[in-house]
Amino acid sequence: MKIVLTNDDGHDEPGLTALYRGVLSMGEVIIVAPRDPQSSAGHRVTLKEPIRVEKISSFKYVVDGSPADCTRLALKHFAPSADWLIAGINPGANLGTDVYQSGTVAAAREAAILGYKAIAISQYIAPDQKINWEVTGQHVTKILSRVMKKTLNHGQFWNINIPHPVTASSVLEYQFCRLDKNSHEYTYQKNSDQYQYTGIIHNRPRTTGKDVDVCFGGQISITLLDI
Question: pTM of the prediction?
């Protein structure tokens, strides 16, 4: 099995490293990831300018572009025979309407558009907590072994969010659930001619049984998305 990995935080971020270690035993792994952080880049793609790519190892390409650019280059040039594209592990949840601004989810969505099987994975961060990437990687490996056995139709992909905090001994339940369509509660603070976004993700509205509620409630949320 050939797996392409990417993310939206940059090629040297710990979430990508944890994902790489978690899937290495599954087959051949190729990393095609952005050089710089691209969080909240959404589904932006580069069309008019050339995209610089640096091959820094036998299996890793660093791209001066967006997460969706990385997916396109990976599946069109570097690994067109890939079986899966997995994006993550994002430090922070991509739940509900987050999926429309997330570079992580966009990378997986682009793979689905191109006809490939894809998964976006994110780690929710509880207030005043830090991520233990080794532990997160262990839980991601376990849930991937289940999800990758499921059938995906053309244009479909998985969005997975890991709850927080978790330990190595945590026995995490998982739930297949739908996307929560509630919008964020946020404001903009005005300072002269500048406006600063202010919002608290932990206090967002949530609907019982939807992905936000499932993940915030301590279970792994698994949502099937369509392009």
Answer: 0.95
The CATH code of the domain that includes 21 is 3.40.1210.10
Quick: pLDDT tens for 14-27. Answer: 999 999 999 999 99
Per-residue pLDDT band for 38 (boundaries 50, 70, 90) equals confident
Domain count, the chain: 1
Contacts 24+ apart (CB under 8 A), 113-117: 113/155, 113/227, 114/71, 114/72, 114/75, 114/76, 115/154, 116/75, 116/82, 116/83, 116/84, 116/85, 117/83, 117/84, 117/85, 117/148, 117/152, 117/157
Residue 150's CB: how many other CB atoms inside 10 A? 12
Tell me the residue range of the domain where 187 lies.
Answer: 2-226
SS3 3: strand
Instruction: Look at strands 156-162 and 220-226 and give their pairing.
Output: antiparallel
Report DSSP state, residue 183: P
